Amino acid sequence: MKSNIDIYESMYQEFNPIKHINSRIKEMEIKSEYGAVVASKWTEFVHQSLINEAYPVVHPIGQETFSLFVEFPTGVFEYALDIDGATSLINEKKIVPLTFSPLEIFMSVDQGNINTDPNRIKPNHKNPVMVLQSEYLTNNKPYCINGNHRIFEAYRNNNEQIEVFVFKDMEFVPFIYDDLSKAMYFFEIDYDNVMNNKRNYIRNEKGSFANEFYEF
Known about the structure:
Radius of gyration: 19 Å
Number of strands: 6
Low-confidence stretches: none
Distance between the termini: 37 Å
Order of helices and strands: HHHEEHEHEEHEHH
Strand order of the largest sheet: 3-6-4-5
Number of helices: 8
Helix content: 25-40%
Strand content: 15-25%
Mean pLDDT: 90
Oligomer: single chain
């Protein structure tokens, strides 16, 4: 199975987050009265807080992070996820993993991006197997962000079960690595709420994440 990772890695650095946000702001402005209010708040937020944010983020040496690429009409954006930070959160909150048969969870693995050559595999098990599932980032499908090879090996060896930490929608926000990735995530929720007349994850009918960004 072919992976899109190589394609995304050749495209994501050309993405312009501010251009993307501004194009969506224009759509929200004409969608509804609520959309115009949300668009105005994001316009203010962009000029005050995001205009100088560096993209793409620089991944620190010695810290395990993960690049989750999401394709938009305007290009491919890199969401930076802090895998070490996720492990710290698991330990701090005493989060309990879920148990799956490898067959159940194998669909979360990017099979086209698996290294199957034993001589080139470098085991790194300091962080547990983690799967992210988001309406906004993965089309509500499970996607492995750490431990691809462990899931693959459990599947190939017909193991009975494997422990996996699963994070959905707002649960993984604490380990989104940088402010721009976090802002993009919240912005896409607001955009979806406006364009589809929803109010997912906001506290009242007139609210938006543009108001609440720094509370998360």
